[in-house]
Amino acid sequence: MKIASIVFASLLVSPALFAAEKQSMEGMPMDHKGMDMPMDQKATTKTGKATGVVKKVDTEKGSVTIAHGPVEALGWPSMTMGFKAEATQLQGLKQGDKVKFEFASTGMDSTITRIEKQ
């Protein structure tokens, strides 16, 4: 009979113990010291210039993929990447063309602002 009493008492106490573990965090101090991430992160637009070789032109998507050299103004190494572009900027461009271009970059999106064949 003692075991039944212990089991019954455990069943009565368990919900209270569980509730004590799940306390609300309201009113608890939150220390954000050392967090260098600004709370209001807005993507800033940066501009750059580069030269490169056209790898792909996609007029339907309005994009051009270019293997370009380093972009010193942004600290970028040489790489191959896609850029958004206007249909008029893509006219006459084809794979293998050497180009000189300027672009605006906001976050992960880069858009051609000027492009010319070399």
UniProtKB/TrEMBL annotation:
Region Disordered: start-end pairs: 28-49
Stated name of the protein: Copper-binding protein
Pfam entry (one): CusF_Ec
InterPro entries, alphabetized: CusF_Ec, CusF_sf
Signal sequence region: 1-19
UniProt KW keywords: Signal
Domain of life where this protein originates: Bacteria
